[in-house]
Amino acid sequence: MVAAGAALADEVGLAGLTMGLLAGRLGVRTPSLYKHVGGQDDLVRRIAVLALQEAAEAVGGAVRGYAGRDALAAAARAFRAFVLAHPGRYAATLGQEPSGPDDPLAAAGQRLLEAFHAVLRGYDIPDRDVNHALRLLRSLFHGFATLQASDGFQWSTDVDESFEWLVAFADRGLRTL
C-alpha cells in the first residue's frame, strides 16, 4: 500500500495525495486503508522512509567504485534522476523528523547521508568541515533537482549543461578546502 501511495504521489503530487484517492486507486473503501496506516500523516511518513531508502540505494550504487569528481558527478546525477522520477515521494521526505534513533526514517536518512559522505572521502576536507560540505551538497543537488522537477528553469539554456556546470563548480569548491 505504501508503494501504491508513493506512486500516486509521484503522479498527482504529494499535496494531491489523499486517503480517498489512494483507496480508489487500490479498489478498496477508504476505511480499509486504516488497517495498514494510521492516517494521512502516517502514510506520508512511510512514503518518506521508502523514498529515502530508494534514494540511498540509487546514490550509494552510483558512487561505488568512484572517487573524487567522478563520485561527486555520479551521486549528483543519481540524486537528480531520483527526484525527477519521483517528485511526490521525494517531497514526502521534506520536513520529516525522526522520532528517535530506532525510527526507520532515521535509518533511511542515515543511509543516504552515508552515500554522500562516501563522496566526500575523495576530497581533503577537514573533519570540522564535513557537515558543512554535506549541507552544501544537499543544498545544491536538492535545490537544482526540485527546481527542475517543478519546471523552474524556463529559459533557453540547456538544463543538463547547467547541471554539469553545477557539479564542476561543487568539485572545484570541495577541492579548495
TrEMBL record:
Residues 1-55 form the HTH tetR-type domain. Residues 18-37 bind DNA. It holds the Pfam family TetR_C_33. Keywords: DNA-binding, Transcription, Transcription regulation. InterPro entries: Homeodomain-like_sf, HTH-type_TetR-like_transc_reg, HTH_TetR, MT1864/Rv1816-like_C, Tet_transcr_reg_TetR-rel_C_sf. The keyword DNA-binding applies. Coiled coil: none annotated. PANTHER family: HTH-TYPE TRANSCRIPTIONAL REGULATOR RUTR, TRANSCRIPTIONAL REGULATORY PROTEIN. This is TetR/AcrR family transcriptional regulator. It comes from Streptomyces ardesiacus.
